[in-house]
Amino acid sequence: MIDQQLEVFVMVAEKQNFTRAAEALHMTQPAVSQYIRMFEESMGQRLLERTNKYVYLNKAGEIVYHHAKEIIALYDRMENLVGDLTDNPVGPLSIGASYTFGEYVLPEILAKMKRNYPEIKPIVSIGNTKEIADLVKRHQLDIGIVEGDFIQDKELTMEDVATDFMYIVASPQHPLNLHKDKIGSESLEQVEWFLREKGSGTRAATDKVFQQLEIQPKSTLTLGSTQPIKSLVEKGMGISLMSEWAIQKELRDGDVTILPVEGLPLSRKFSTLIATPFRSKALQVFIKLLHE
User: Fold this and answer.
1) Helical spans, DSSP H, in 50-161
2) What is the pTM of this model?
3) Count of H helices and E strands in the chain?
4) Residue 179, Cα to own-chain centre: how many angstroms?
5) CA distance 100 to 77
6) pLDDT digits (tens, 9 = 90+) for 235-276
């Protein structure tokens, strides 16, 4: 069992309250306070600042919390790997995915894993490419699936698992759909563009297309996820570069159309990110399902 003081400290930091932390840990509040006092004494300085209702991390506490999360995650992974020597694929598996893969591809893979390996308990985090890569590096995730074209990091093992194609899409009623031939760069510059945020793979792909087509849109709006962008495009408010995975239903229903633009679609690779050479049986099963 990993050091109890470390686990208590992390819980108090996350709950920001001794009583709530005690309830989550099934301990008494005085016991939690005692663990924190002993832990701060062992570290040689105060880690938590107290108010009447809340506690919060000071600078030293933030450093300890960051590393404590990594230590706990590594300890849990060690236990799972040792257990794998004799057991079938079981236990928790922390999976991270960028929005496009996580929202439109991952659910089907998880459903298949649940049917065939019910003892594996996936814990899923969805974020942009940069966020997922950072979590894998900090050992908060066993594996990440992101747009591999835009990640360069020697600390991570990368392996391509899928290819996605990206198109510029618009509502059937959008003025650009009146063009009978290929749509030129000048026309694309004049309309409203909906963009994903910096750090996302889709935004990196969009910037690449802007460079490729030599365009600088006059008006853009940045949003933090794909769904609101699709809604705005469907309403004819503007255009966007979107993954083929993300627009399958909308294309089938006639809610959006693909604009004929020279040089598109843009292809991009999705890759797995792993920060450790040791792979549990649960992780091996998941990677196998990804390739299938």
Assistant:
1) 59-83, 99-104, 106-116, 129-137
2) 0.70
3) 12, 11
4) 37
5) 27
6) 999 999 999 999 999 999 999 999 999 999 999 999 999 988
